[in-house]
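Quick question, first post here. What does this chain look like in 3D?
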Amino acid sequence: MAAAASDGERLRLDATRLRRFCAEALSAAGATAHDAAVAAAVLVRTDLRGVHSHGVQTLPFHVKNLRDGGTCSPTRQTVVRSTPVTAVVDGNGGLGLVIATAAMAMAVGKARDSGIGVVLVRNSNHFGAAGHYALAAAEAGFIGLATSNASPIMTAAGSAKKVISNAPLAYAVPTGRFPLALDIAMSATAGMKVRLAAERGEAIPEGWVVDAGGMPTTNPGDYAAGGALAPLGGHKGYGMALLTETLAGALSGAAMTRGVVPWLVDTGTPTNAGHAFVALDVECFMGRDDFYRRMQQLIGELHAAEPAPGVERVLVPGELEHLREQDALERGLELEPVIWHHLEQVADSLGLTGALAAARRD
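> Answer (accepted):
Ran it through. Tokens below.
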């Protein structure tokens, strides 16, 4: 077994070696070398940016879906409809992390040729953090948007039980420096954050979750016991979730609402989730240097805002994640014990304890 961390002790890991371990685990579960490498890169970079709810702590679920047949590898995407600026892709039940990476690359390619690219995906699986794909577009010089539907885990405004997904939605904008980037769900919080709170034995803020009876609760265990996430801002989050369901579900040809298989529960059946990706070429509207100058002016105005009491300075979306990534690359990726325990379980089950232990820097 890999060396254990004491309760409360955070570990520092080498990102390259952690990525190698994740790829080996996915390969051992049945993924091709290509699929495993792409998926591992998505998961580890998500953690590098501090989004631990959607990083390597989800590796056990991806491994189980691969082993049980809910995820197919090799991932084979099929373009079922295409124009110079749009495409619909069938993911054929492959790794959502791989399908989404390729779909955003396709959207960027169309935007490079024609100014805009819109790619919708059907028959995919869980794609991790939406922000990863929007960021990929921005780092290629394009404005990026990414969203996905999923099985219902959130109430509608006025409903007592879950009826729709929490509709992750992300954007990223190139600025000439670090990209402006936002990745949020249309629920008050992410479901994975609630699950992590339950594992830590921590209470959650009221307003995040309702119990099986539709009443607000601070017990994270109520979420898995028939509860649901609450929509962000009530009707506002619910309304935005319907937009995601329209683009990623209805328009793509993917399953919708209860038709999407819950990947954490039924690990033997592909989810038929849908995604939507948009890439926009800023040079269709103005010169890139002019745009970057205007973005820096905008960011500068926000940085100059007077901080509220107790706040050191005002940041812009994506800035904190950029700083976290730079720190993690320099000093090592920091993970809490509960996530390390998830990785230990994967390593033990696949005979990869040595590879996981090698990822530690401490």
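The chain has a mean pLDDT of 96.
The CA atoms of residues 25 and 212 lie 36 Å apart.
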